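Dear colleagues,

As part of the handover before I leave the project, I'm documenting each prediction I ran so the next person doesn't have to rerun anything. This entry is a single chain, and its sequence is reproduced below.
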Amino acid sequence: MWEHDCGAIPVVDLRGHTVGVITDRDICMAAYIQGQPLHRIGVKVAGSRHVHSVAPDASVELACAIMRTHRVRRLPVIDIGGNLVGMLSLADIVRHTRRDGADGLDVEQIAAAVAEIYRPSLPARREGNQAPSTFS
């Protein structure tokens, strides 16, 4: 992930079907919570097992709606046979959105999706109830 500037990797089974996704954040949180070195933590434990995905012929608008609803920044693109054919990121959508909305999305829709995706999920963290820190 570090060498290829990649924040998420789909996890596939022996048939090539996507069974999960693991992100750089998943890895960091698993190491922190479990207190184990990375070589002792399995992908199955650290990554998500519920996959939100889109078909190759899905609209960008649908992909953005899925990302917004499930608050994810990346979606595996899976064909009708269940095979992974790519990954679509929120950054991909932002980079390819035109100001005039000619691609199906306008800037306001993208802004609303980004705001929802990045909305803090744990209000307790904002109130000072954070996990204990090892930094002084």
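The mean pLDDT is 82. Helices lie at 24-34, 43-46, 60-70, 90-96, 107-117, 123-126.

All the best with the project,
I.
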